[in-house]
Amino acid sequence: MSISYSIRHATHPNDSKSYDTAKLRETFLIENLFQENTIQAVYTMHDRLIVGGAQPVEQPLKLETLPTLRSEHFLDRRELGIINIGAESTVSVDGDVITLANKEALYVGKGVKEVVFHPAASGKTLFYFNSAPAHHAYPTKKVSLDEAETVEMGSLENSNHRLIRKLLINSVVETCQLQMGLTELQKGSVWNTMPAHTHDRRMEAYLYFDLPEDQVVSHFMGEPQETRHLFVKNNQAVISPPWSIHSGAGTYNYSFIWGMAGENLDYNDMDKVQPVDLK
Questions:
Q1: Cofactor note, please (predicted)?
Q2: Which one of 8, 96, 128, 274 has the largest count of C-beta atoms within 10 Å of its C-beta?
């Protein structure tokens, strides 16, 4: 079996107040998401999102179902979003071969029987994916960077000049509840998602990438009046519960992928918290 997985249970904000550093990292940080010739997955009970990474090197990797799903195929009752953060490579969806360049995305709908990740002809192959429960079968669709909704926000003066690329959102591709995109911090900027916010209607997961191996991001989480932080390295992900803010500042500019699941597809549905009100 080429896929390895673990389960993370949902958390109450009152419980997290007592977590020490080790417990915070064990509960919310996904450290080893990419390992050669395997698919790594974490099934979180927060909106039952699956966070995964595939790194085919010597042979293709098939996305097999997980025992906990109790289904014949991975996507019998789920939808899938894939973003390529490595070299140009291909994904097979029920036999159709789709090429994804760096930072391009692919939506795969409920009912697809087979998804296979293929090694790149040259360079490192890294596919990041999120999967959420689905009630309807929408068609497979590739989204290039040109097709994404791209918004430029922030300023160098505030250290948060960034490009937000909305790839798999309802104004670009039809989905049941999954939404994904990526944000690129521009040179000299390190702050993301400020002002911070929460959204009780959905949870979120962050994958930090394009970060030099000797640099880190401090990811801020927790209730707005009871914040905590995690130091995150390149290609590591963070699970963000609905009650938690999700913001970060790095020692170098970087990119990150945001993925959301829940009951609301409105990208702008958020309860903002001004920086001076955070504690």
A1: Binds 1 zinc ion per subunit.
A2: 128
Coil/strand/helix, residue 277:
helix
> What's the pLDDT tens digit per position in 136-165?
999 999 999 999 999 999 999 999 999 999
CB atoms within 10 A of CB 1: 10
CA–CA–CA angle 94, 42, 229 (5° rounding)? 135
- Starting at the edge strand that comes first in sequence, how are the strands of the sheet with 115-117 ordered? 61-62, 115-117, 89-93, 96-100
Within 10 angstroms of residue 151's Cβ, the number of other Cβ atoms is: 13
Instruction: Look up the pTM and report it.
Output: 0.96
Q: Which of 259, 248, 245 is nearest to 13 (CA)?
A: 245
Residue set of the binding site for Zn(2+)? 197, 199, 204, 246
Domain count, the chain: 1
* CATH at 26: 2.60.120.10
Instruction: Mark the binding-site residues, compressed into ranges.
Output: 197, 199, 204, 246
Instruction: Evaluate whether residue 15 is within a structural domain.
Output: no
